[in-house]
Amino acid sequence: MKTVLITGCSSGYGLETARHFHAGGWNVVATMRSPRQDILPRSERMRVVALDVTNEDSIAAALAACGPIDVLVNNAGIGLVGAFEAMPMVHVRKLFETNTFGVMAMTQAVIPQFRARRSGVVVNVTSSVTLAPMPLAAAYTASKMAIEGFTGSLAHELGAFDVRVKLVEPGYAPSTRFAHNTELRVGDLIPEAYAGFAGPIFAGFATPEMVTKETDVAEAVWLAANDVSGQLRFPAGPDAVALAQAS
Ligand SMILES: NC(=O)c1ccc[n+]([C@@H]2O[C@H](COP(=O)([O-])OP(=O)(O)OC[C@H]3O[C@@H](n4cnc5c(N)ncnc54)[C@H](OP(=O)(O)O)[C@@H]3O)[C@@H](O)[C@H]2O)c1
């Protein structure tokens, strides 16, 4: 029986992905900063483990607690929306600590066991903004673009050891906690000069033509984790699939 470790399982895509792999018969290590067992199925195959991807001690402790894993899903991430000139660099750096360096640190921590066993899969959750960068998300897009390049390169490097590295690129899901998981209020990051430009963009967020569901992302992660072909990218959700086809 295979074991998957997923980061950021307290809500949204990570929570649904943990449920999906459990329903598929896998052992699941559902990690989150503040562990909550009650949101996941009670089962011998479901373990909830504390993990903050920005803290290397926390990463080491979580991996020591869960034993060998077959698949790592780097899902944890935070958002940051607003005009780039108004974004305090301290928040841009925090964004990269989670979305970019957190993914790299988690990946680096599991490579030795995957390489030694000549098996294993790393699935990195980025975003459809990497397929079509959108305004008012420059830092966020950059944090995810960095992981796209990282993943593409690493896929070659670890392919030499039969370790697979994949990308899941979800579209926009207003139903997750993502829009609220920023320390900054969006209004603070839209200077007056940008108000007319930002208004229609935010109106588009409020009434999207197509949205991604948590189940779309869970299914895409499942496909990526089980894929034995050389396919790198797995867009998730109708909006992401449309962007991938257009790009
Ligand atoms: N929703 C969208 O529209 C959308 C679109 C494209 C891509 N994505 C990406 O999809 C992924 C999941 O997002 P979501 O929409 O499911 O949002 P979400 O509901 O806010 O879930 C994000 C998860 O990341 C966790 N997290 C944040 N910082 C962390 C850290 N330092 N260490 C460990 N966990 C941390 C959060 O846990 P806490 O409870 O501890 O805060 C939460 O469980 C993210 O990588 C996001 O960038 C989202």
UniProtKB/TrEMBL annotation:
Q: One Pfam match, by short name? A: adh_short
Q: Matching InterPro entries, A to Z?
A: NAD(P)-bd_dom_sf, Sc_DH/Rdtase_CS, SDR_fam, SDR_oxidoreductase
Sorted keywords for this record are: Oxidoreductase
Concerning its family, UniProt says: Belongs to the short-chain dehydrogenases/reductases (SDR) family.
The name this protein carries in UniProt is: NAD(P)-dependent dehydrogenase (Short-subunit alcohol dehydrogenase family)
